[in-house]
Amino acid sequence: MRWICRSVFLWIGLVAALLPSSTLPAAAAGHKIYIPVPVQNTSLPAYIFYPDYPVQRCLPGVVVGVGVGSQEIPQYHVHCNFLANRGFVVLLIDPSNYPESLIAPPDRWDRGLGRALSDINQVVVAGKLAVTDRWYMDSIKAAVDLLWRHPSVDPTRLVLSGHSQPANAALPYACRDRRIKAVIWNYGGSPWVMPFEPENLPPVQIFQGTEDEVYDVKHGEELATTLLTMGGYYEANIYPGEKHMFNVFYDMRTETRWMKPALLDAFERLVSFLNRVLMMNAPPPQKYSQRPAPPQRKPSRN
Fold first, then answer.
1. Could you tell me which residue, 287 or 207, shows the higher pLDDT?
2. What is the biggest distance separating any 2 CA atoms in the chain, rounded to whole angstroms?
3. Is 268 exposed, middle or buried (CB count within 10 Å of its CB: 0-12, 13-18, 19+)?
4. What is the tens place of the pLDDT at every residue in 109-146?
5. Using alpha carbons only, how large is the chain's radius of gyration in Å?
């Protein structure tokens, strides 16, 4: 009798091992993994984030593109980790592929010499973009390609989220790549706006603060007006009193993200938007428009 029981359990174990599984790889679940993304004859440094819990299905994929501070900024890592834990596979990149050796350490990028180095980075990237944006778009495409092929990602639900300069590139890129089902436009604007066709955009969500010291809030408002005029599906979230990077930044020396009401509110709006446009309740793209509805609250202090 004991021999029969052992045989039954052995066969059950063998069959279970042979059956395909849709769960995320054990080595990936709950991990942030450094991954170089192949681009032309080089590679783009990146991090990929998975949920901290087992998942039994493929998840939407989000490419998060960041600007002058590089993909090493710890606040972006916190943002991507929280987003992954809400049911996404997130790939964090700096499309400019600016040399890491010329970027300030992650704990000093926002002050003193670090801020100066960031300003130099921005000038260099802007100069290259003035010549051509092909190299920048190639970086974004390589990141999208990686998620599109990833075994844990649903290739029919890809999102492009751009912060600062990458927000400007996200619009024209999404017009050219039909795999992108939603764009998150975070505080972009002139003077490095790239031409795009609003009628070819997927749903767009806009985030910007009225006190943005890098890109004037008028750019977010103008984008919302353009999308409204074209009949595109969008949401505009204009936050009174908030500055650049308000939806990811907090001073890690003196604050936690829980001390930033605008950051927390923007994150919930982001997740809600993505769930609506990527899941079954999403309205048909290009058939529904929504007027900007700034949150009604007192300006928060920075």
1. 207
2. 79
3. exposed
4. 666 666 666 666 777 777 777 788 898 999 999 999 99
5. 21
pLDDT in tens, 174-217: 999 999 999 999 999 876 678 899 999 999 999 999 999 989 99
The structural domains of the chain, ordered by start, are: 23-278 (3.40.50.1820)
Assessment of whether the complete model's pTM goes beyond 0.85: no
- Contact indicator for 147, 63 with CB cutoff of 8 Å: yes
As a three-state string, the secondary structure of 138-206 is HHHHHHHHHHHHCCCEEEEEEEEEEECHHHHHHHHHHHHCCCEEEEEEECCCCCCCCCCCHHHCCCEEE
For residues 269 and 235, the answer to whether their CB atoms sit within 8 Å is yes
Helices (H), 19-164: 74-84, 112-131, 134-149
Half-sphere exposure of 270 (CA within 13 A, CB side): 28
66: which DSSP letter? -
Phi, psi of 239 (to 5 degrees): -100, 115
Measured CA to CA, the distance from residue 185 to residue 226 in angstroms comes to 14
